[in-house]
Amino acid sequence: MATHLLGAFYVTQPAFGAGYGRIVFTSSLVGVFGSPWRAAYGAAKGGVIGLMNTVAVEGEWHGILRNAIPPGALTRMGQNEIENVPPDLRETVDAFVGLKTGLTPDYVTPMVLYLASEHCRVTHAMYSAIAGRYARVFIGLTEGWQEPTTVPASREDIETHLAAIEDPAGYIIPSSGVDGLRAIATARQQNH
Question: If you average pLDDT over residues 74-103, what whole number do you get?
């Protein structure tokens, strides 16, 4: 937590006085999606995503764009972890390591350079940069299911409507927690 989350927090603070800037946070797919035996690391890197989401909204008021990358490269730290991987993850790790070409920081650098450049107009986004593959990573909100009455749903109602609650068709990517609440309020008003 001190290295990943607090380190990102403390180096971000001075940027607010500049009136312009680009900040690229370094997270991890472990922080976004989880991974076995990596709870502390995942919590810290997940915290970086929460930090990026919040300061991206606040940064717009200060002319600062903020984004994050969950990169992938075989570094010295990663090499040690690969050598000590639990047996049930060996096949997955061996497939990843088999990519060798493209698992260097050189393949992460282009995405960081773009996000840190004056040409970047994107803010509040995450981009994966692993082995020469660049992809948007996001957390979304489904349309869900709306209880039509003024009485709270029952456990049985949730079970009955779980497919609609989970259906990713028509999802949105809220620009903030407030935007997510606004979407829920709008849906509620449309259904009443």
Answer: 68
Nearest Cα neighbor of 127 from 44, 22, 25 is: 25
Domain containing 174 equals 140-192
Per-residue pLDDT tens over the stretch 141-186: 999 998 877 789 999 999 999 999 999 998 999 888 888 888 888 8
What integer pLDDT is reported at residue 101 of this predicted model?
67
**What's the 3-state SS for 104-151?**
CHHHCHHHHHHHHCCCCCCCCEEEEEECCEEEEECCCECCCCCCCCCC
Q: Which are the catalytic amino acids?
A: 41
| 46 and 34 share one domain | yes
Torsion angle of the four alpha carbons 65, 31, 127, 90, in this order, in degrees rounded to the nearest 10: 160
The residues pairing with 135 across neighbouring beta strands, listed in sequence order, are 128
SS3 call for 184: helix
pTM of the entire structure? 0.82
Task: Judge if 16 and 105 occupy the same domain.
Answer: yes
